[in-house]
Amino acid sequence: MQIALTQEGCEGEMINGPFWVMGGIPIFRSDHVPFLPRNRVTLCNCGRSSIMPLCDGTHRSHAEAQIKKRKRGQA
Length: 75
Ligand code: FES
Known about the structure:
The chain is an alpha+beta fold. Helices cover 19% and strands 31% of the residues. The model has no long low-confidence stretch (mean pLDDT 93).
């Protein structure tokens, strides 16, 4: 079993990505329905995924928008 917080480059900065969970750990939806067991899954760390608890990549577009906003001096 292995759990890691991922980081990735975005707009020239490093941003937090999803949690990588490896080793066939059972994952359940909030209504207790299990997902099919997989050796690797990515769990949302940003709270914006539309397929919770899994990452759907939304963290990246949100981070890009925040960084661009900050660079324009709006955040
Ligand atoms: S961490 Fe990827 S959508 Fe939340």
